Amino acid sequence: MDEQNEKTLSKDDLPELELELSKMKAEINRSENRGSIINVKFYGNTRLKRRPIIQYSLDGKCINSFSSMHSASKITNTSTQLIWKCCNNLGKTGGGFIWKYRDLITS
Questions:
Q1: Is 91 inside a domain boundary?
Q2: What is the extent of the structural domain holding 19?
Q3: Up-side HSE of residue 80: CA atoms within 13 Å toward CB?
Q4: pLDDT above 90 coverage of the chain, percent
Q5: 45 shares a domain with 27
Q6: pLDDT of 42 above 70
């Protein structure tokens, strides 16, 4: 660790750190509810989370599964925005298909 960034913490710093952590958790929850890829920063490290999605035909038959919206968009030549709208119930179809987040599908 760089010596300039080192800091000795005391008990007085605890409430401030807990508040910062609470804000970060809230932002993560908001981000997870918004889309398929979230950028979460923890002390300078970046982590990407891809949300798997399922492609259905218009008659409801499962066609394919994708690890992310981006990969589905590239493979099916459908815009990411249309897929996102469908997954978030802002549209019924995207590119002639029905799209759903895999983690929201009930068996």
A1: yes
A2: 13-50
A3: 9
A4: 44
A5: yes
A6: no
